[in-house]
């Protein structure tokens, strides 16, 4: 548990709260972070012709190398295909996740998959891709 995650003020022993009420009052004084991010929306249920793709990457900071992987399945979770690739000279974990998505999309294109749900654990990357797709719609 992180008790200092909201930036608890540095209190000397003389000014430390002595009761639950004082503690709660002190917490109310600390400005709470505001979150302006919209709640992510999930798309509707996949249709029978939708291929679901899970991507992932493991980045080694010391060697600047990453392992990329992807798995394609039906909506009922039956695996269709998978792939992996070792990529050198990768500058960051975000770049590694982006490369995993790129390789998965190349795999999907080679197998003529038409309707794809792409799932990644890199929320920032997916948010950026979705934002770009809203601005510049395209078909893969």
Descriptive overview:
The protein is an alpha+beta fold and 140 residues long. The protein has three helices and four strands; from the N terminus they run H-E-E-E-H-E-H. It has a four-stranded mixed sheet, covered by helices on one side. The longest helix has 18 residues, at 93-110. The protein has a domain at 51-135: Nucleotidyltransferase, domain 5 (2-Layer Sandwich), CATH 3.30.420. Helices cover 29% and strands 24% of the residues. It has helices spanning 20-29, 93-110, 123-135, and strands at 51-60, 65-73, 79-88, 116-119.
Compact summary:
With 140 residues, the chain is an alpha+beta fold. Helices cover 29% and strands 24% of the residues. The chain has a domain of 85 residues: 2-Layer Sandwich (Nucleotidyltransferase, domain 5).
């Amino acid at each position: 548990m992180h008790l200092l995650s909201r930036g608890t003020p540095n209190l000397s022993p003389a000014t430390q709260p002595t009761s639950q009420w004082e503690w709660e009052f002190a917490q109310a004084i600390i400005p709470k972070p505001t979150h302006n991010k919209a709640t992510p929306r999930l798309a509707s249920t996949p249709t029978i012709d939708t291929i679901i793709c899970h991507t992932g990457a493991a980045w080694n900071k010391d060697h600047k190398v990453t392992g990329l992987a992807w798995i394609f399945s039906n909506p009922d979770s039956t695996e269709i295909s998978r792939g992996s690739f070792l990529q050198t000279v990768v500058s960051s974990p975000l770049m590694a996740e982006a490369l995993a998505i790129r390789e998965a999309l190349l795999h999907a294109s080679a197998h003529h998959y038409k309707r794809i749900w792409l799932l990644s654990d890199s929320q920032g990357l997916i948010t950026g891709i979705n934002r770009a797709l809203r601005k510049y719609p395209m078909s893969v």
